[in-house]
């Protein structure tokens, strides 16, 4: 029996990759589990002379209520395209230091193709539709991170 | 209706939330609301003219020609940058 539970969490605290994987792997008889973890990286654009210092911290703002709905809607659209087992999406908010875990997408399915594709689909839509905004701190200055056209292009290939 | 602003837009406007009453029988689109808010001053005019702004009604993203109701929660925000 394939479980089709969707778990969406928006939280300040960190998450345990191993525990999240175990939960996905143990919940069903799925033959494949694909997990993606996003980390806080140095967002400083080397082309921008205005941000010479490395990024030391990110602050993640979100729209409580809408964020969870947007993530659930993205997972539902993935389920409409591929036969999926349990799916977990976790996104952290608040202040996050460099290299911290920021996002987790875990997808279980009977076979790897659906799990790989759905994980990528969920991330591509998360980056363009889920209401999160990053503010970076570098050299004591804070500035909002600009959206990237490449993220829109990644999302459009699913249309 | 309740109007919310997020991220850089909220910082620029210096406001996170306001009430914008809709007269009985009045027909207003999300774009019409944006035009109305622009009249609040130069900072509003400039910030709300950004072509990349997004709008959500009752916590779902919608096109700018969506008609609004007085009990809607409308949110205006810049392109999202999560993940």
TrEMBL record, chain A:
Coiled coil: none annotated. It comes from Corallincola platygyrae. GO terms for molecular function: molybdopterin synthase activity. This is Molybdopterin synthase catalytic subunit. Heterotetramer of 2 MoaD subunits and 2 MoaE subunits. Also stable as homodimer. The enzyme changes between these two forms during catalysis. Residues 136-159 are annotated as: Disordered. SUPFAM superfamilies: Molybdopterin synthase subunit MoaE. Pfam families: MoaE (PF02391). Its EC number is 2.8.1.12. Pathway: Cofactor biosynthesis; molybdopterin biosynthesis. Belongs to the MoaE family. Keywords: Molybdenum cofactor biosynthesis, Transferase. Residues 146-159 have a biased composition (Basic and acidic residues). It is an enzyme of class 2 (transferase). It catalyses: 2 [molybdopterin-synthase sulfur-carrier protein]-C-terminal-Gly-aminoethanethioate + cyclic pyranopterin phosphate + H2O = molybdopterin + 2 [molybdopterin-synthase sulfur-carrier protein]-C-terminal Gly-Gly + 2 H(+).
TrEMBL record, chain B:
The keyword Nucleotide-binding applies. Keywords: Nucleotide-binding. InterPro entries: Beta-grasp_dom_sf, MOCS2A, Mopterin_synth/thiamin_S_b, ThiS/MoaD-like. It comes from the Bacteria. Pfam families: ThiS. CDD domains: Ubl_MoaD (cd00754). Belongs to the MoaD family. This is Molybdopterin synthase sulfur carrier subunit. It comes from Corallincola platygyrae.
């Amino acid at each position: 029996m394939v479980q089709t539970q969707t778990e969406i969490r928006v939280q300040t605290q960190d998450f345990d990759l191993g525990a999240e994987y175990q939960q996905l792997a143990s919940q069903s008889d799925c033959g494949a589990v694909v997990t993606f973890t996003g980390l806080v990286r140095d967002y400083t654009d080397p082309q921008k002379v205005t941000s010479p210092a490395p990024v030391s911290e990110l602050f993640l703002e979100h729209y409580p209520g809408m964020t969870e709905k947007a993530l659930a809607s993205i997972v539902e659209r993935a389920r409409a395209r591929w036969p999926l087992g349990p799916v977990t999406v976790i996104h952290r908010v608040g202040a996050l230091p460099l290299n911290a875990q920021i996002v987790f997408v875990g997808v279980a399915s009977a076979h790897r193709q659906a799990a790989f594709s759905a994980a990528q689909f969920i991330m591509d839509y998360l980056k363009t539709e889920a209401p999160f905004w990053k503010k970076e701190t570098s050299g004591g200055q804070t500035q909002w991170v600009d959206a990237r056209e490449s993220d829109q292009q990644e999302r459009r290939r699913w249309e | 209706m309740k109007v919310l602003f997020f991220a850089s837009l909220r910082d620029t406007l210096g406001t996170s939330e306001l009430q914008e009453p809709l007269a009985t029988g009045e027909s207003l689109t999300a774009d019409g609301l944006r035009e109305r808010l622009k009249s609040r001053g130069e900072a509003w005019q400039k910030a709300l003219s950004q072509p990349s702004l997004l709008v959500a009604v009752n916590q779902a993203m919608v096109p700018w020609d969506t008609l609004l109701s007085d009990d809607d929660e409308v949110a205006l925000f810049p392109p999202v940058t999560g993940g």
